[in-house]
Amino acid sequence: MDARRTPMADVMPLIGQLRHYSGRSARADVMTALSMAVTLLPQGLAFGALAGLHPAAGLYTAMGSAIVFALLTATRFVAVGPSSTMALLAFTAVHDRVGGDPGRAAALTAALSVLVGLWCLLGAMLRLQGIAEFLSSPVVLGYLAGVGIQMLAGQVGPLLGIPTPHPDPIAKLWYVVTHLQQAQPLTATIGVGALITLVLLKRFLSGVPAGLVVCLTAIAISAAAGLADRGMAVVGTVSGGLPTPAGLPQVSWDDVSALLMPALGMALIASIETVSAVRQTGTEVGGRIVMNRETASLGAASIATGALGGFPPMASTARTMTARAGAQSQLFQLIIAGIVMFVLVSGGPLISLLPMAVLAAIVMAGAPRLIDVTGFLRLWHGWRTESVITLVTVIGVLAFGVLQGLIVAVLLSTGQLLRRTARPHDALLAVYGEHQSPREIAEGASPHPEILIYRVDAPLFFANARRIRQRVLSLVTDTAPRPRCVIMDAEAVFYLDATAADTLAELTADLQALGCALVLARAHGSVLSTLRTNPYHDGVTQRLHAFADVREAYLAMRQA
Protein backbone atom coordinates (compact mmCIF):
# COMPACT_ATOMS: atom_id res chain seq x y z
CA MET A 1 0.00 0.00 0.00
CA ASP A 2 1.23 3.47 -0.81
CA ALA A 3 2.51 5.08 2.41
CA ARG A 4 1.50 8.49 1.08
CA ARG A 5 -2.11 7.42 0.74
CA THR A 6 -4.43 9.26 3.13
CA PRO A 7 -7.89 8.36 4.49
CA MET A 8 -9.31 11.34 2.59
CA ALA A 9 -7.82 9.95 -0.64
CA ASP A 10 -9.63 6.67 0.07
CA VAL A 11 -12.92 8.52 0.38
CA MET A 12 -12.24 10.82 -2.58
CA PRO A 13 -9.75 9.15 -4.96
CA LEU A 14 -9.66 12.36 -7.02
CA ILE A 15 -7.28 13.72 -4.36
CA GLY A 16 -4.82 10.95 -5.19
CA GLN A 17 -5.26 11.55 -8.91
CA LEU A 18 -4.22 15.18 -8.44
CA ARG A 19 -1.11 14.36 -6.38
CA HIS A 20 1.27 14.74 -9.33
CA TYR A 21 -0.99 17.05 -11.31
CA SER A 22 0.70 19.48 -13.70
CA GLY A 23 -0.24 22.32 -15.97
CA ARG A 24 -0.09 19.94 -18.91
CA SER A 25 -2.54 17.62 -17.17
CA ALA A 26 -4.85 20.55 -16.46
CA ARG A 27 -4.87 21.55 -20.12
CA ALA A 28 -5.69 17.99 -21.12
CA ASP A 29 -8.63 17.84 -18.70
CA VAL A 30 -9.93 21.25 -19.80
CA MET A 31 -9.77 20.35 -23.50
CA THR A 32 -11.48 17.01 -22.85
CA ALA A 33 -14.21 18.74 -20.85
CA LEU A 34 -14.79 21.32 -23.58
CA SER A 35 -14.98 18.70 -26.34
CA MET A 36 -17.46 16.65 -24.32
CA ALA A 37 -19.54 19.64 -23.19
CA VAL A 38 -20.29 20.78 -26.74
CA THR A 39 -22.09 17.49 -27.35
CA LEU A 40 -23.42 16.98 -23.83
CA LEU A 41 -25.24 20.33 -23.65
CA PRO A 42 -27.62 19.78 -26.60
CA GLN A 43 -28.00 16.11 -25.72
CA GLY A 44 -28.86 16.99 -22.13
CA LEU A 45 -31.61 19.33 -23.26
CA ALA A 46 -32.95 16.75 -25.70
CA PHE A 47 -32.92 13.97 -23.12
CA GLY A 48 -34.64 16.19 -20.58
CA ALA A 49 -37.51 16.66 -23.04
CA LEU A 50 -37.47 12.92 -23.81
CA ALA A 51 -37.97 12.24 -20.10
CA GLY A 52 -41.16 14.31 -20.22
CA LEU A 53 -39.59 17.11 -18.17
CA HIS A 54 -38.46 20.64 -18.88
CA PRO A 55 -35.38 20.25 -21.14
CA ALA A 56 -33.20 21.89 -18.48
CA ALA A 57 -33.70 18.76 -16.34
CA GLY A 58 -31.16 17.04 -18.58
CA LEU A 59 -28.61 19.69 -17.67
CA TYR A 60 -29.40 19.27 -13.97
CA THR A 61 -28.75 15.55 -14.43
CA ALA A 62 -25.45 16.25 -16.19
CA MET A 63 -24.29 18.68 -13.52
CA GLY A 64 -25.28 16.76 -10.39
CA SER A 65 -24.11 13.34 -11.54
CA ALA A 66 -20.76 14.65 -12.83
CA ILE A 67 -19.89 16.34 -9.54
CA VAL A 68 -20.81 13.47 -7.23
CA PHE A 69 -19.45 10.67 -9.40
CA ALA A 70 -16.17 12.49 -10.03
CA LEU A 71 -15.60 12.89 -6.28
CA LEU A 72 -16.42 9.28 -5.36
CA THR A 73 -15.33 7.07 -8.25
CA ALA A 74 -11.99 5.27 -8.16
CA THR A 75 -11.65 5.37 -11.95
CA ARG A 76 -9.99 8.18 -13.87
CA PHE A 77 -12.06 8.24 -17.02
CA VAL A 78 -15.57 6.83 -16.53
CA ALA A 79 -18.11 9.55 -17.34
CA VAL A 80 -21.72 9.62 -16.18
CA GLY A 81 -24.60 11.85 -17.16
CA PRO A 82 -27.97 11.94 -18.91
CA SER A 83 -28.74 9.21 -21.41
CA SER A 84 -31.54 8.61 -23.86
CA THR A 85 -32.21 5.15 -22.43
CA MET A 86 -32.70 6.35 -18.86
CA ALA A 87 -34.72 9.34 -20.05
CA LEU A 88 -37.16 7.11 -21.92
CA LEU A 89 -37.35 4.68 -18.99
CA ALA A 90 -38.05 7.57 -16.61
CA PHE A 91 -40.82 8.89 -18.84
CA THR A 92 -42.40 5.43 -19.05
CA ALA A 93 -42.19 4.91 -15.29
CA VAL A 94 -43.94 8.12 -14.25
CA HIS A 95 -46.19 9.03 -17.19
CA ASP A 96 -49.29 7.15 -16.06
CA ARG A 97 -49.17 8.80 -12.62
CA VAL A 98 -48.54 12.38 -13.78
CA GLY A 99 -51.98 13.35 -15.05
CA GLY A 100 -50.54 16.04 -17.32
CA ASP A 101 -49.09 18.03 -14.41
CA PRO A 102 -45.49 19.14 -15.19
CA GLY A 103 -44.78 19.81 -11.52
CA ARG A 104 -45.88 16.34 -10.51
CA ALA A 105 -43.85 14.84 -13.37
CA ALA A 106 -40.74 16.58 -12.06
CA ALA A 107 -41.44 15.45 -8.49
CA LEU A 108 -42.08 11.81 -9.44
CA THR A 109 -39.00 11.69 -11.67
CA ALA A 110 -36.88 13.15 -8.87
CA ALA A 111 -38.22 10.48 -6.51
CA LEU A 112 -37.50 7.83 -9.14
CA SER A 113 -33.91 9.03 -9.40
CA VAL A 114 -33.49 8.78 -5.63
CA LEU A 115 -34.94 5.25 -5.64
CA VAL A 116 -32.59 4.18 -8.43
CA GLY A 117 -29.71 5.53 -6.36
CA LEU A 118 -30.89 3.65 -3.26
CA TRP A 119 -31.14 0.40 -5.23
CA CYS A 120 -27.59 0.91 -6.48
CA LEU A 121 -26.33 1.61 -2.96
CA LEU A 122 -28.10 -1.50 -1.65
CA GLY A 123 -26.59 -3.60 -4.44
CA ALA A 124 -23.13 -2.24 -3.64
CA MET A 125 -23.55 -2.85 0.09
CA LEU A 126 -24.64 -6.45 -0.50
CA ARG A 127 -22.02 -6.89 -3.24
CA LEU A 128 -24.69 -7.76 -5.77
CA GLN A 129 -23.17 -5.83 -8.65
CA GLY A 130 -22.54 -9.14 -10.46
CA ILE A 131 -26.31 -9.34 -11.04
CA ALA A 132 -25.82 -6.61 -13.62
CA GLU A 133 -24.04 -9.19 -15.77
CA PHE A 134 -26.96 -11.59 -15.61
CA LEU A 135 -28.48 -10.26 -18.81
CA SER A 136 -26.81 -11.93 -21.77
CA SER A 137 -25.29 -9.85 -24.56
CA PRO A 138 -27.93 -10.93 -27.15
CA VAL A 139 -30.71 -9.90 -24.76
CA VAL A 140 -29.08 -6.53 -24.06
CA LEU A 141 -28.57 -6.07 -27.81
CA GLY A 142 -32.27 -6.67 -28.45
CA TYR A 143 -33.39 -4.57 -25.50
CA LEU A 144 -31.37 -1.53 -26.58
CA ALA A 145 -32.56 -1.94 -30.17
CA GLY A 146 -36.16 -1.95 -28.96
CA VAL A 147 -35.51 1.17 -26.89
CA GLY A 148 -33.94 2.84 -29.94
CA ILE A 149 -36.95 2.04 -32.10
CA GLN A 150 -39.25 3.35 -29.37
CA MET A 151 -37.26 6.59 -29.26
CA LEU A 152 -37.42 7.06 -33.01
CA ALA A 153 -41.15 6.36 -33.09
CA GLY A 154 -41.91 8.71 -30.23
CA GLN A 155 -40.08 11.72 -31.69
CA VAL A 156 -41.70 11.85 -35.12
CA GLY A 157 -44.67 13.80 -33.76
CA PRO A 158 -42.63 16.57 -32.08
CA LEU A 159 -40.40 16.71 -35.15
CA LEU A 160 -43.37 17.50 -37.40
CA GLY A 161 -45.38 19.48 -34.85
CA ILE A 162 -48.18 16.91 -34.62
CA PRO A 163 -49.54 16.60 -31.05
CA THR A 164 -50.19 12.96 -30.20
CA PRO A 165 -52.70 11.85 -27.55
CA HIS A 166 -51.07 8.46 -26.95
CA PRO A 167 -48.25 7.84 -24.44
CA ASP A 168 -46.99 4.72 -26.22
CA PRO A 169 -44.32 5.59 -28.83
CA ILE A 170 -45.56 3.06 -31.39
CA ALA A 171 -49.11 4.35 -31.00
CA LYS A 172 -47.71 7.87 -31.38
CA LEU A 173 -46.03 6.90 -34.65
CA TRP A 174 -49.22 5.32 -35.99
CA TYR A 175 -51.19 8.43 -35.06
CA VAL A 176 -48.67 10.64 -36.85
CA VAL A 177 -48.70 8.47 -39.96
CA THR A 178 -52.49 8.61 -40.10
CA HIS A 179 -52.70 12.35 -39.31
CA LEU A 180 -49.94 13.84 -41.45
CA GLN A 181 -52.34 16.56 -42.54
CA GLN A 182 -52.01 18.02 -39.02
CA ALA A 183 -48.29 18.68 -39.44
CA GLN A 184 -47.29 22.31 -38.82
CA PRO A 185 -45.29 23.41 -41.90
CA LEU A 186 -42.96 25.73 -39.99
CA THR A 187 -42.23 23.19 -37.23
CA ALA A 188 -41.76 20.38 -39.74
CA THR A 189 -39.37 22.52 -41.80
CA ILE A 190 -37.22 23.36 -38.78
CA GLY A 191 -37.34 19.81 -37.40
CA VAL A 192 -36.63 17.93 -40.62
CA GLY A 193 -34.01 20.50 -41.61
CA ALA A 194 -32.27 20.05 -38.25
CA LEU A 195 -32.35 16.25 -38.60
CA ILE A 196 -30.91 16.34 -42.12
CA THR A 197 -28.22 18.79 -41.01
CA LEU A 198 -27.25 16.57 -38.06
CA VAL A 199 -26.95 13.52 -40.29
CA LEU A 200 -24.89 15.34 -42.92
CA LEU A 201 -22.54 16.93 -40.38
CA LYS A 202 -21.93 13.61 -38.65
CA ARG A 203 -21.38 11.92 -42.00
CA PHE A 204 -19.07 14.41 -43.69
CA LEU A 205 -17.75 16.66 -40.89
CA SER A 206 -17.44 14.28 -37.97
CA GLY A 207 -15.09 16.62 -36.12
CA VAL A 208 -17.74 19.34 -35.90
CA PRO A 209 -20.01 19.33 -32.80
CA ALA A 210 -23.14 18.79 -34.86
CA GLY A 211 -25.63 19.08 -32.01
CA LEU A 212 -24.23 22.37 -30.75
CA VAL A 213 -24.00 23.86 -34.24
CA VAL A 214 -27.61 22.93 -35.01
CA CYS A 215 -28.86 24.26 -31.65
CA LEU A 216 -27.05 27.59 -31.98
CA THR A 217 -28.27 27.97 -35.56
CA ALA A 218 -31.84 27.16 -34.54
CA ILE A 219 -31.68 29.64 -31.65
CA ALA A 220 -30.48 32.34 -34.04
CA ILE A 221 -33.27 31.57 -36.51
CA SER A 222 -35.82 31.45 -33.69
CA ALA A 223 -34.71 34.86 -32.38
CA ALA A 224 -34.61 36.48 -35.81
CA ALA A 225 -37.91 35.07 -37.06
CA GLY A 226 -39.80 35.17 -33.75
CA LEU A 227 -40.72 31.48 -34.04
CA ALA A 228 -42.27 31.38 -30.56
CA ASP A 229 -44.66 34.17 -31.52
CA ARG A 230 -45.61 32.27 -34.66
CA GLY A 231 -46.86 29.25 -32.71
CA MET A 232 -43.75 27.05 -32.68
CA ALA A 233 -43.07 25.13 -29.48
CA VAL A 234 -39.81 26.26 -27.87
CA VAL A 235 -37.98 25.29 -24.69
CA GLY A 236 -39.30 28.29 -22.79
CA THR A 237 -38.15 29.81 -19.53
CA VAL A 238 -35.03 28.26 -17.99
CA SER A 239 -34.49 29.18 -14.34
CA GLY A 240 -30.92 30.21 -13.69
CA GLY A 241 -28.64 28.44 -11.26
CA LEU A 242 -29.52 25.35 -9.24
CA PRO A 243 -33.09 24.11 -9.07
CA THR A 244 -34.89 23.66 -5.79
CA PRO A 245 -36.53 20.33 -4.89
CA ALA A 246 -39.97 21.92 -4.78
CA GLY A 247 -42.89 19.64 -5.45
CA LEU A 248 -41.57 16.65 -3.49
CA PRO A 249 -44.63 16.81 -1.20
CA GLN A 250 -46.59 15.70 -4.28
CA VAL A 251 -44.97 12.26 -3.95
CA SER A 252 -46.99 9.87 -1.80
CA TRP A 253 -46.10 6.47 -0.40
CA ASP A 254 -48.32 4.93 -3.07
CA ASP A 255 -46.16 6.67 -5.68
CA VAL A 256 -42.99 5.38 -4.05
CA SER A 257 -44.26 1.80 -3.95
CA ALA A 258 -45.34 2.03 -7.60
CA LEU A 259 -41.89 3.30 -8.61
CA LEU A 260 -39.87 0.71 -6.68
CA MET A 261 -39.82 -1.97 -9.37
CA PRO A 262 -39.22 0.41 -12.30
CA ALA A 263 -36.37 1.91 -10.26
CA LEU A 264 -34.92 -1.57 -9.73
CA GLY A 265 -34.99 -2.24 -13.47
CA MET A 266 -33.37 1.11 -14.22
CA ALA A 267 -30.69 0.44 -11.60
CA LEU A 268 -29.96 -2.86 -13.34
CA ILE A 269 -29.62 -1.21 -16.75
CA ALA A 270 -27.48 1.60 -15.34
CA SER A 271 -25.24 -0.93 -13.59
CA ILE A 272 -24.76 -2.90 -16.80
CA GLU A 273 -23.61 0.20 -18.66
CA THR A 274 -21.37 1.21 -15.76
CA VAL A 275 -19.67 -2.20 -15.78
CA SER A 276 -19.17 -1.85 -19.54
CA ALA A 277 -17.73 1.66 -19.22
CA VAL A 278 -15.37 0.65 -16.40
CA ARG A 279 -14.07 -2.28 -18.39
CA GLN A 280 -13.32 0.00 -21.32
CA THR A 281 -10.86 1.87 -19.11
CA GLY A 282 -8.73 -1.20 -18.39
CA THR A 283 -7.36 -1.99 -14.95
CA GLU A 284 -6.77 0.93 -12.66
CA VAL A 285 -6.50 1.69 -8.96
CA GLY A 286 -3.58 -0.53 -8.10
CA GLY A 287 -4.36 -3.02 -10.83
CA ARG A 288 -8.02 -3.63 -10.08
CA ILE A 289 -11.34 -1.84 -9.98
CA VAL A 290 -13.74 -2.54 -7.11
CA MET A 291 -17.06 -2.67 -8.89
CA ASN A 292 -19.21 -2.32 -5.77
CA ARG A 293 -17.55 1.08 -5.17
CA GLU A 294 -18.44 2.19 -8.69
CA THR A 295 -22.02 1.01 -8.22
CA ALA A 296 -22.20 2.98 -4.98
CA SER A 297 -20.75 6.05 -6.73
CA LEU A 298 -23.42 5.75 -9.41
CA GLY A 299 -26.08 5.42 -6.73
CA ALA A 300 -24.89 8.57 -4.95
CA ALA A 301 -24.86 10.41 -8.30
CA SER A 302 -28.44 9.34 -8.97
CA ILE A 303 -29.58 10.56 -5.57
CA ALA A 304 -27.87 13.90 -6.23
CA THR A 305 -29.64 14.33 -9.57
CA GLY A 306 -32.94 13.56 -7.89
CA ALA A 307 -32.27 16.31 -5.36
CA LEU A 308 -31.58 18.73 -8.22
CA GLY A 309 -34.71 17.81 -10.17
CA GLY A 310 -33.10 15.60 -12.81
CA PHE A 311 -33.63 11.99 -13.87
CA PRO A 312 -31.42 8.94 -13.17
CA PRO A 313 -27.97 9.16 -14.81
CA MET A 314 -25.97 6.41 -16.41
CA ALA A 315 -22.35 5.86 -17.32
CA SER A 316 -21.58 6.47 -20.98
CA THR A 317 -19.16 4.15 -22.74
CA ALA A 318 -18.77 6.62 -25.62
CA ARG A 319 -17.95 9.55 -23.36
CA THR A 320 -15.70 7.32 -21.27
CA MET A 321 -13.64 6.41 -24.33
CA THR A 322 -13.38 10.11 -25.22
CA ALA A 323 -12.11 10.85 -21.72
CA ARG A 324 -9.65 7.97 -21.86
CA ALA A 325 -8.15 9.44 -25.03
CA GLY A 326 -7.40 12.80 -23.47
CA ALA A 327 -8.27 13.31 -19.81
CA GLN A 328 -5.81 12.86 -16.97
CA SER A 329 -8.19 12.76 -14.01
CA GLN A 330 -11.82 12.99 -12.96
CA LEU A 331 -11.32 16.74 -12.82
CA PHE A 332 -12.64 16.78 -16.39
CA GLN A 333 -16.13 15.94 -15.07
CA LEU A 334 -15.98 18.75 -12.51
CA ILE A 335 -15.07 21.13 -15.32
CA ILE A 336 -18.03 19.85 -17.35
CA ALA A 337 -20.30 20.49 -14.37
CA GLY A 338 -18.94 24.03 -14.17
CA ILE A 339 -19.62 24.59 -17.86
CA VAL A 340 -23.18 23.31 -17.48
CA MET A 341 -23.75 25.54 -14.46
CA PHE A 342 -22.43 28.56 -16.39
CA VAL A 343 -24.80 27.82 -19.26
CA LEU A 344 -27.74 27.47 -16.88
CA VAL A 345 -26.96 30.76 -15.15
CA SER A 346 -26.05 32.87 -18.18
CA GLY A 347 -27.59 31.11 -21.16
CA GLY A 348 -31.17 30.74 -20.01
CA PRO A 349 -32.61 33.41 -22.36
CA LEU A 350 -30.91 31.81 -25.35
CA ILE A 351 -31.91 28.25 -24.45
CA SER A 352 -35.51 29.38 -24.02
CA LEU A 353 -35.67 30.20 -27.76
CA LEU A 354 -34.60 26.73 -28.87
CA PRO A 355 -37.36 24.94 -30.86
CA MET A 356 -38.53 21.65 -29.37
CA ALA A 357 -38.47 20.15 -32.86
CA VAL A 358 -34.68 20.54 -32.86
CA LEU A 359 -34.45 18.55 -29.62
CA ALA A 360 -36.57 15.84 -31.23
CA ALA A 361 -34.14 15.81 -34.16
CA ILE A 362 -31.18 15.39 -31.77
CA VAL A 363 -32.85 12.39 -30.11
CA MET A 364 -33.69 10.83 -33.47
CA ALA A 365 -30.15 11.35 -34.77
CA GLY A 366 -28.70 9.58 -31.74
CA ALA A 367 -31.24 6.74 -31.48
CA PRO A 368 -29.71 4.60 -34.29
CA ARG A 369 -26.62 4.11 -32.13
CA LEU A 370 -28.75 1.89 -29.91
CA ILE A 371 -29.77 -0.24 -32.90
CA ASP A 372 -26.64 -2.26 -33.56
CA VAL A 373 -27.42 -3.80 -36.94
CA THR A 374 -23.81 -4.94 -37.44
CA GLY A 375 -23.82 -6.66 -34.07
CA PHE A 376 -27.06 -8.45 -34.91
CA LEU A 377 -25.77 -9.64 -38.29
CA ARG A 378 -22.62 -10.94 -36.63
CA LEU A 379 -24.79 -12.75 -34.10
CA TRP A 380 -27.03 -14.15 -36.85
CA HIS A 381 -24.12 -15.65 -38.76
CA GLY A 382 -22.59 -17.31 -35.71
CA TRP A 383 -25.36 -17.97 -33.19
CA ARG A 384 -28.82 -18.36 -34.69
CA THR A 385 -30.51 -19.26 -31.40
CA GLU A 386 -29.15 -16.15 -29.68
CA SER A 387 -30.20 -14.00 -32.63
CA VAL A 388 -33.76 -15.29 -32.29
CA ILE A 389 -33.65 -14.36 -28.60
CA THR A 390 -32.51 -10.87 -29.65
CA LEU A 391 -35.48 -10.53 -32.02
CA VAL A 392 -37.91 -11.76 -29.36
CA THR A 393 -36.50 -9.18 -26.95
CA VAL A 394 -37.01 -6.41 -29.52
CA ILE A 395 -40.60 -7.54 -30.07
CA GLY A 396 -41.16 -7.70 -26.30
CA VAL A 397 -39.99 -4.11 -25.85
CA LEU A 398 -42.13 -2.88 -28.74
CA ALA A 399 -45.21 -4.86 -27.72
CA PHE A 400 -45.16 -4.34 -23.95
CA GLY A 401 -43.09 -1.19 -23.43
CA VAL A 402 -39.54 -0.55 -22.29
CA LEU A 403 -40.06 -1.41 -18.60
CA GLN A 404 -42.13 -4.50 -19.29
CA GLY A 405 -39.67 -5.33 -22.05
CA LEU A 406 -36.95 -5.37 -19.42
CA ILE A 407 -38.88 -8.10 -17.60
CA VAL A 408 -39.11 -10.00 -20.89
CA ALA A 409 -35.34 -9.61 -21.27
CA VAL A 410 -34.70 -10.96 -17.77
CA LEU A 411 -37.02 -13.91 -18.36
CA LEU A 412 -35.30 -14.69 -21.66
CA SER A 413 -31.88 -14.60 -20.01
CA THR A 414 -33.15 -16.84 -17.24
CA GLY A 415 -34.66 -19.24 -19.74
CA GLN A 416 -31.46 -19.28 -21.77
CA LEU A 417 -29.44 -20.06 -18.65
CA LEU A 418 -31.81 -22.79 -17.50
CA ARG A 419 -31.88 -24.38 -20.94
CA ARG A 420 -28.11 -24.54 -21.12
CA THR A 421 -27.67 -25.84 -17.59
CA ALA A 422 -30.47 -28.38 -17.93
CA ARG A 423 -29.05 -29.64 -21.22
CA PRO A 424 -25.28 -29.31 -20.84
CA HIS A 425 -22.84 -30.35 -23.50
CA ASP A 426 -21.62 -33.91 -23.18
CA ALA A 427 -19.46 -36.20 -25.29
CA LEU A 428 -18.12 -39.70 -25.74
CA LEU A 429 -14.34 -40.05 -25.62
CA ALA A 430 -11.93 -42.66 -26.92
CA VAL A 431 -8.32 -43.47 -26.08
CA TYR A 432 -6.14 -44.11 -29.13
CA GLY A 433 -2.36 -43.89 -29.24
CA GLU A 434 -0.07 -44.16 -26.26
CA HIS A 435 0.88 -40.49 -26.35
CA GLN A 436 -2.41 -39.05 -27.64
CA SER A 437 -4.94 -37.31 -25.46
CA PRO A 438 -8.43 -38.82 -25.36
CA ARG A 439 -10.63 -37.20 -27.96
CA GLU A 440 -14.31 -36.90 -28.76
CA ILE A 441 -15.97 -39.48 -30.98
CA ALA A 442 -19.41 -40.11 -32.44
CA GLU A 443 -21.71 -42.67 -30.89
CA GLY A 444 -20.90 -46.16 -32.08
CA ALA A 445 -17.41 -45.17 -33.21
CA SER A 446 -15.48 -46.29 -30.13
CA PRO A 447 -12.42 -48.50 -30.72
CA HIS A 448 -13.00 -50.02 -27.26
CA PRO A 449 -16.78 -50.63 -26.94
CA GLU A 450 -16.29 -52.61 -23.73
CA ILE A 451 -15.24 -49.40 -21.97
CA LEU A 452 -17.48 -46.35 -22.43
CA ILE A 453 -15.90 -43.00 -21.62
CA TYR A 454 -18.44 -40.26 -21.00
CA ARG A 455 -17.80 -36.58 -20.28
CA VAL A 456 -20.29 -33.97 -19.06
CA ASP A 457 -19.28 -30.31 -19.24
CA ALA A 458 -21.29 -28.84 -16.36
CA PRO A 459 -21.83 -29.08 -12.61
CA LEU A 460 -24.54 -31.59 -11.67
CA PHE A 461 -27.62 -30.35 -9.86
CA PHE A 462 -31.38 -30.82 -9.77
CA ALA A 463 -31.98 -29.35 -13.25
CA ASN A 464 -29.72 -31.71 -15.18
CA ALA A 465 -28.81 -34.69 -12.99
CA ARG A 466 -31.69 -36.94 -14.02
CA ARG A 467 -31.12 -36.17 -17.68
CA ILE A 468 -27.45 -37.12 -17.34
CA ARG A 469 -28.43 -40.39 -15.60
CA GLN A 470 -30.85 -41.25 -18.39
CA ARG A 471 -28.27 -40.33 -21.01
CA VAL A 472 -25.64 -42.67 -19.55
CA LEU A 473 -28.12 -45.53 -19.14
CA SER A 474 -29.26 -45.13 -22.76
CA LEU A 475 -25.68 -45.23 -24.02
CA VAL A 476 -25.03 -48.42 -22.06
CA THR A 477 -28.25 -50.26 -22.98
CA ASP A 478 -28.11 -49.23 -26.65
CA THR A 479 -24.62 -50.67 -27.10
CA ALA A 480 -24.24 -54.32 -28.07
CA PRO A 481 -22.51 -55.99 -26.39
CA ARG A 482 -22.97 -53.86 -23.33
CA PRO A 483 -19.85 -52.17 -21.97
CA ARG A 484 -18.54 -53.56 -18.71
CA CYS A 485 -17.36 -50.19 -17.46
CA VAL A 486 -18.32 -46.52 -17.70
CA ILE A 487 -15.62 -43.96 -17.05
CA MET A 488 -17.10 -40.55 -16.22
CA ASP A 489 -14.75 -37.69 -17.00
CA ALA A 490 -15.80 -35.30 -14.21
CA GLU A 491 -13.32 -32.49 -14.77
CA ALA A 492 -16.11 -29.97 -15.41
CA VAL A 493 -18.25 -31.24 -12.52
CA PHE A 494 -17.13 -28.86 -9.80
CA TYR A 495 -20.34 -29.09 -7.76
CA LEU A 496 -22.97 -31.65 -6.73
CA ASP A 497 -26.19 -30.75 -4.98
CA ALA A 498 -28.25 -33.23 -2.96
CA THR A 499 -30.40 -34.18 -5.96
CA ALA A 500 -27.33 -34.87 -8.08
CA ALA A 501 -25.71 -36.92 -5.31
CA ASP A 502 -28.87 -39.02 -5.02
CA THR A 503 -29.13 -39.40 -8.80
CA LEU A 504 -25.46 -40.34 -9.20
CA ALA A 505 -25.88 -42.98 -6.51
CA GLU A 506 -28.94 -44.28 -8.34
CA LEU A 507 -26.97 -44.39 -11.59
CA THR A 508 -24.18 -46.33 -9.90
CA ALA A 509 -26.68 -48.89 -8.58
CA ASP A 510 -28.44 -49.13 -11.96
CA LEU A 511 -25.18 -49.78 -13.77
CA GLN A 512 -24.18 -52.41 -11.27
CA ALA A 513 -27.50 -54.15 -11.90
CA LEU A 514 -26.57 -54.19 -15.61
CA GLY A 515 -23.19 -55.69 -14.84
CA CYS A 516 -21.38 -52.44 -15.54
CA ALA A 517 -19.03 -50.59 -13.20
CA LEU A 518 -18.86 -46.80 -12.84
CA VAL A 519 -15.53 -45.12 -12.17
CA LEU A 520 -14.53 -41.45 -12.06
CA ALA A 521 -11.67 -39.61 -13.73
CA ARG A 522 -10.34 -36.12 -12.98
CA ALA A 523 -12.93 -35.54 -10.24
CA HIS A 524 -12.52 -32.45 -8.08
CA GLY A 525 -11.62 -32.96 -4.45
CA SER A 526 -14.83 -31.35 -3.20
CA VAL A 527 -16.92 -33.61 -5.44
CA LEU A 528 -15.06 -36.70 -4.25
CA SER A 529 -15.56 -35.65 -0.65
CA THR A 530 -19.29 -35.37 -1.25
CA LEU A 531 -19.44 -38.79 -2.88
CA ARG A 532 -17.35 -40.41 -0.16
CA THR A 533 -19.93 -39.34 2.43
CA ASN A 534 -23.01 -39.74 0.21
CA PRO A 535 -25.59 -41.80 2.15
CA TYR A 536 -28.00 -42.40 -0.75
CA HIS A 537 -28.63 -45.97 -1.99
CA ASP A 538 -26.72 -47.55 0.85
CA GLY A 539 -23.68 -45.32 0.24
CA VAL A 540 -22.91 -46.95 -3.09
CA THR A 541 -20.85 -43.96 -4.31
CA GLN A 542 -18.60 -44.18 -1.26
CA ARG A 543 -16.85 -47.12 -2.93
CA LEU A 544 -16.40 -45.58 -6.39
CA HIS A 545 -12.89 -45.81 -7.85
CA ALA A 546 -11.39 -42.47 -8.84
CA PHE A 547 -8.40 -41.83 -11.10
CA ALA A 548 -6.26 -38.78 -11.80
CA ASP A 549 -6.91 -38.81 -15.56
CA VAL A 550 -8.92 -40.56 -18.24
CA ARG A 551 -6.03 -42.58 -19.69
CA GLU A 552 -5.08 -43.94 -16.27
CA ALA A 553 -8.70 -44.96 -15.67
CA TYR A 554 -8.90 -46.60 -19.08
CA LEU A 555 -5.72 -48.62 -18.62
CA ALA A 556 -6.82 -49.76 -15.15
CA MET A 557 -10.25 -50.85 -16.38
CA ARG A 558 -8.85 -52.62 -19.42
CA GLN A 559 -6.67 -54.75 -17.17
CA ALA A 560 -9.43 -55.40 -14.62
Automatic annotation (TrEMBL):
Q: Name a GO CC annotation attached to this entry.
A: membrane
GO BP annotation list: transmembrane transport
User: Which residue numbers delimit the STAS domain?
Assistant: 441-557
Asked if the Swiss-Prot or TrEMBL record annotates the protein with the keyword S-adenosyl-L-methionine, the reply is no
Keywords from the UniProt entry = Membrane, Transmembrane, Transmembrane helix
Q: Which PROSITE patterns match?
A: STAS
Subcellular localization, as worded in the UniProt entry: Membrane
Query: Which CDD domains does the record match to this protein?
Result: STAS_SulP_like_sulfate_transporter (cd07042)
Q: Which InterPro entries match?
A: SLC26A/SulP_dom, SLC26A/SulP_fam, STAS_dom, STAS_dom_sf
What's its membrane topology? Multi-pass membrane protein
**What is the protein name stated in its UniProt record?**
High affinity sulfate transporter 1
